[in-house]
Amino acid sequence: MYLHIGQETIIRTQDIVGVFDLDTSTVSKATRDYLSKMEKEKKVITVSYELPKSFILTYNEEQGERVYISQLSSSTLLKRSGKFSVI
Description:
With 87 residues, this protein is of the alpha+beta class. 28% of the residues lie in helices and 37% in strands.
């Protein structure tokens, strides 16, 4: 299956490691450091230049890790997927 994460971006659900709310997850210094590292490695894809609300961490064999920044909330993305549960 695929998940539409905003604008014209679709990702495979089997590649999703996690969907995170930017407001709550970036409180942690470890998360901020990780996102900064990924940005320096050019592995961050910004889906929209609207106010970002969530980020999606993906992994697959071909591309490795990727972070998608989306204007959609994490709860909206989870509802769209119909596959994941909120922890």
